[in-house]
Every structure is written in structure tokens, then in C-alpha cells.
Amino acid sequence: MSTTFQLDTATSRANPTPAPMKRLTIPAIRQRKVDGVTAEPVVMLTAYTARQAQLLDAHCDLLLVGDSLGQVIYGLPSSVPVTLDMMAAHGAAVVRGSYHAAVVVDMPFGAYEASPQQAFESASRLLKETGCAAVKLEGGAAMAETVAFLTARGIPAMGHVGLTPQAVNVLGGYNARGRSEAEAQKIVADAQALDAAGAFAIVVEGVVEPIAIAVTQAVKCPTIGIGASAQCDGQVLVTEDMLGMFERVPRFVKRYEAIAETISGAAERYAAEVRARTFPGVEQTYQPR
Ligand code: KIV
């Protein structure tokens, strides 16, 4: 699929005019998995800005406006301080920048855990203000009632089990989960509870591979792995991680580019030209007619 947009530069460089296309729907994603088999794996990447969404959209089934934007965009130490305002602003930008993938917005810590009613208020705000198709929330069986409540009221919900970064203060770090028998059983039971509650898909993050496979076999909805297994029904990565934006990344990240070097190299060349007064050149300056 082409990623070339016709830019209407008369208005803004950020407003492409793509060919009309029907967006993927959440039921279409859910129905990818039939009788435990997903013939076409679900492709998901994170996106936080309109331009990033434009570039990723054609290649993805789902764009996730992850609360990982706390660290990636805002330089926060974890996703715990991320607010609903941040998610709403970035969610709206990603929806504006996409027209093919279904957009899922993360519910930030503190915006949904207190009650299903609190979750509905936060999630309905995200749907109204961003135009996203669904929300994601972390937690297993404890969130099943909330997932059922949202789904019954018109808000598709994606679950998230295993390593749940918003719970870092309880977990004590970001290590892979499911190494003990008790923990492994809890992760599978968490996923089953979310599945039974109507989650349309479940992110399985940072778990040992046999548990990721067990979860995938135990639930009817698609699982989306990150640090999990290629046998999950789909995969997600933080886009900046796979682009090589950061030096330190978890071992499950595969770098498909070295964007940090590209950006820093461009800035180095620009700085040298400014200091040498060779930028701007003739091509970049206006002369009297
Ligand atoms: O916040 C996020 O980006 C996520 C993905 C890593 C699954 O939850």
C-alpha cells in the first residue's frame, strides 16, 4: 500500500489528502481469530503524533496511542504520571493523521481503576474528543467487570496482562512475568477473565514464551504480543524503540532503523553549516525580483 500522500501545502504541511478508504473496524480485528486460529496476524504499532500516524497507518491494522508516551514524548520516569488530557490530545492527533488503521487509546493510570463508572467517564471522553475506536486498560480479572461494563455501553476495550507498566510500583520493576507456576496460572486466568468479559483483543506483555502461547490458546480473542511470542495472534512495539531512537531498550525490541544517529547526524551537519555561514545558501534565501 502506498504511503505517498498528496499534500495540500496551501493549508498546512501536516494535512495530507489521502484517497478515501474505509477504516478497519474493531469487530473486523476481533474476527481475525476464528476457532483459535489467526490466519493474518494483527499488526500494531504505537503512534503519538499526526505525522507519525500518517507514516505508519498504511502498514498497520491498529495504531495504539500508548501511555508509553509519558516516557517517549514527555521524558517522564514511568507511565504513572500520564494524564487523561495528554491521552486525549495525542489520541486526537493520531486519529487526524490516519485513515486506515483502527486507533486505540490507552486509559492512563488513575482514570479507570476506581469503578466501571469512572472508566466509562474517562473512556467516553477519549472516544468523543479523539474519534478513536477503542480504549486499552491494564489489569486482568480485576478489570473484567469494567471491560464488560464498557463493552455493553458501546466502548470496545482491549485488555493488557503480564507485565503491566502502570503497576510498576507493585511489581517492583519491568522484569518478565510468569516465571513461577502461580504467576503463570494467574496470567492465563487474567486473560481468560478479560476474554469472557468481552475484550476484543489482549496485549500480552513481557511474559515467558510458554505462558504467552498458553494465553493465546486459552482465549478466543486475538492476543497481541510484546516481549511474548511470535505465536501470539499479533505483535506490537513502541515505534521509537523499533526505529532505534533510544540506546537502552528491552531485549524483546528489534531495531529496524538507527533513527537516533540519523537525527543527531543531521543536527551536527546543520550546526556546522550555521557556524560556517554556509546555511542558508542561495536556494534557501529570497532575493529582490
Ligand atoms: O503504552 C504502550 O505503548 C503499551 C504498549 C507497549 C503495549 O501499552
Report on this structure:
- It is a single chain.
- The radius of gyration is 21 Å and the shape is globular.
- The strands form two sheets. The chain has an eight-stranded parallel beta barrel, surrounded by six helices. Strands 1-2 form a two-stranded antiparallel sheet.
- Helix 5 packs across helix 6.
- It has a single domain (2-284), classed as Phosphoenolpyruvate-binding domains (TIM Barrel).
- The protein is built from eleven helices and ten strands.
- Helices cover 37% and strands 14% of the residues.
- With 289 residues, it is α/β, with parallel strands linked by helices.
Question: Which helices and strands occur, and which strands form pairs?
Answer:
Elements: H1 26-30, E1 33-34, E2 37-38, E3 42-46, H2 50-57, E4 62-65, H3 69-72, H4 84-96, E5 102-106, H5 116-130, E6 134-136, H6 144-152, E7 157-162, H7 168-171, H8 181-197, E8 201-205, H9 209-218, E9 223-226, E10 234-237, H10 239-243, H11 259-275
Parallel strand pairs: 3-4, 3-10, 4-5, 5-6, 6-7, 7-8, 8-9, 9-10
Antiparallel strand pairs: 1-2
The structure holds 3-methyl-2-oxobutanoic acid.
